[in-house]
Amino acid sequence: MTRITKEQLLEKMHQEKVPFTLKDLAVSGLDMLEIGIPKLIISETLNKLLMHTAVQPNDNNKERLCQLSLAFFKERNR
After folding, report:
1. Cβ count near 60 (within 10 Å)
2. How far apart are CA 37 and CA 54, in angstroms?
3. CA-CA distance, 65 to 9, in Å (whole number)?
4. pTM as predicted
5. What are the tens digits of pLDDT across the range 31-45?
6. Whole-angstrom distance, CA of residue 73 vs CA of residue 69
């Protein structure tokens, strides 16, 4: 097993454009409102998107994140 340092991991994540904060996401709370996500769950939704993009950084684009947001919202209201 190859060990990497914390610094190497952070550098790899930076190179892969992994978002580290909500501000790094390709969408904002305003985008969430525009697609119909209720104000009360915007923070929850953005945090789910951040966790998702930590694993799938290529999904950090507005179209994909809006699709995921709507899917999260539908799943939440089942």
Report:
1. 20
2. 22
3. 25
4. 0.86
5. 999 999 999 999 999
6. 6
